[in-house]
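Feature request, filed as a ticket because there's no other form

It would be nice if the structure record came with a short human-readable summary line next to the tokens. Right now we just get the raw output. Example of a typical job, pasted below so the devs can see what we mean:
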Amino acid sequence: MCHTAPPVTITNTNCSRDLISKITQVQDSAGKQETLVELGAGVYADAVVYDTSKITLDVGLGYHVDMTLEEALVCSEKRIGVLEQ
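Raw output as currently delivered:
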């Protein structure tokens, strides 16, 4: 079982919009979330995220930042703005 969410990478506006959609879904649901975690080489394992109040966001260049869901929404919206310029 996994207790934290896997990192999320934002590489284009579609990924950012998908992330915003998924964050909104997590905010609307209560309790734990079931997900798949990539172990490598296309192998995935079932996982349960018990604490959905934070997300680990891949901000690029190998850096990951823990953020609240609200902070991740703001970051994603800013990323969309930058990518659309």
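Something like this underneath would help us a lot:
Residues 13-28 form the longest helix (16 residues).
The domain at 8-84 is CATH 1.10.287.370 (Helix Hairpins).
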